[in-house]
Automatic annotation (TrEMBL):
Protein name: PocR ligand-binding domain-containing protein
Alphabetized PROSITE patterns for the sequence: HTH_ARAC_FAMILY_1, HTH_ARAC_FAMILY_2
Species, as recorded: Terrisporobacter hibernicus
Domain HTH araC/xylS-type: residue ranges: 238-336
Sorted UniProt keywords: DNA-binding, Transcription, Transcription regulation
InterPro entries in the cross-refs: Homeodomain-like_sf, HTH_AraC, HTH_AraC-typ_CS, PocR_dom, Tscrpt_reg_AraC-type_HTH
Source domain of life: Bacteria
GO MF assignments: DNA-binding transcription factor activity; sequence-specific DNA binding
One Pfam entry name: HTH_18
PANTHER family: ARAC-FAMILY TRANSCRIPTIONAL REGULATOR (PTHR43280), HTH-TYPE TRANSCRIPTIONAL REGULATOR EXSA (PTHR43280:SF2)
Length: 340
């Protein structure tokens, strides 16, 4: 049977992908954006740093950022694997190609971190602006933001790049399988041909749609778990990270997590901020809001039920926190999502 060309929007459900991307950005401590084959963004920028936001908003400096993105993507396509490089400000970025049937469809761009080890001296600086006085001026102007960029080891960056590559491959394979099944089913119905029951056993139309709908949610948990195994979180902090992801419905407090780790509350807070790149309260709030968005999109649970499911003390507080992060109430968010 002749294969039809697959477009990127057939492989990625952009609304679900944004939720997944936000979660991945949170646990990897990297900014992430997805672009099409022309380099145009097809997702919002997750966790974009203050420094990079400032540089990308600068009318003269943004051209260097775009040149880095373009060259990084091309190198990833050429090698057909994740490409790790330094931008013009010695910030580490990663380009992960999305390739379908041998065609370059786009890329996941991640990074905006600095290396905590000496690997940077051996890495390729993809664009050189050392002779541009304006580049030095801008760096000085936003130096305090530059110093706030997260620190990762090269090994951690490489593990994240490999994880994102595995995610791309998994997503593409799943989408191609489901699209092939649906295509064959529809053609069989349209031509009144008898369906091969052995081939379609267990693949009712409802089941196929449920499988497709569940891919993103399954990947969130699977790849969060995969990353937590790979990321070099200290053995002291790991019990708290495991507890947070396994007990989504609890009201997680810093006091309880300090007890889980058998350390003082003040030491836990300092260690958590250092290793996760955010305060404990901010990290938990962002994580629970991302989980809330999934429930609002994928279930018929009421706002009150979502609040209870995620361990908020009462719905009013949940609504307040949700609006703080998303700019709208949970009800408005759900209505907007359903109407898209």
């Amino acid at each position: 049977m002749k294969k039809e060309k697959i477009n990127l929007d057939q492989v990625i459900d952009f609304k679900k992908w944004q939720t997944l991307q936000d979660n991945l950005s949170l646990v990897t401590n990297m900014a992430i954006i997805t672009v099409d084959y022309k380099g145009n963004p097809i997702s919002k920028h997750s966790k974009c740093s203050r420094f990079c936001q400032s540089v990308r908003n600068h009318p003269q400096m943004v051209k260097y950022c775009q040149k880095c993105d373009s060259r990084g993507g091309l190198e990833a396509v050429r090698s057909n694997e994740p490409y790790i490089y330094l931008c013009h400000y010695n910030i580490v970025d990663v380009a992960v190609p999305i390739i379908i049937d041998g065609r370059y469809m786009g890329a996941i761009m991640a990074g905006q971190v600095k290396l905590s080890d000496n690997y940077a001296k051996d890495m390729e600086k993809i664009v050189d602006t050392s002779n541009d006085p304006l580049s030095i001026e801008v760096l000085e102007e936003y130096k305090k933001y530059y110093e706030q960029l997260p620190l990762l080891t090269y090994e951690e960056v490489k593990n994240i790049a490999n994880m994102l590559s595995s995610l791309c491959n998994y997503l593409v394979e799943e989408a191609l399988d489901k699209n092939l099944i649906l295509e064959m089913y529809k053609k069989s119905i349209g031509s009144n041909k008898e369906i091969d029951e052995d081939f379609f056993q267990g693949y009712s139309v409802d089941n196929i749609e449920k499988l497709k709908k569940g891919i993103s949610n399954a990947m969130i948990d699977a790849y969060v778990s995969h990353y937590e195994c790979d990321k070099k979180i200290s053995s002291t902090l790991k019990p708290a990270i495991d507890y947070i992801y396994k007990n989504k419905s609890e009201n997680i407090t810093v006091e309880n997590m300090a007890k889980v780790c058998h350390i003082s509350q003040s030491y836990f807070s300092r260690l958590f901020s250092k290793e996760m790149g955010d305060s404990f309260s901010n990290y938990i709030s962002k994580l629970k809001i991302n989980w809330a968005k999934e429930l609002l999109e994928e279930s018929d649970m009421s706002v009150s039920q979502v609040s209870d499911e995620l361990g908020f003390n009462e719905p009013g507080y949940f609504i307040k926190i949700f609006k703080k992060h998303e700019g709208v109430t949970p009800s408005v968010y759900r209505k907007y999502y359903k109407n898209m």
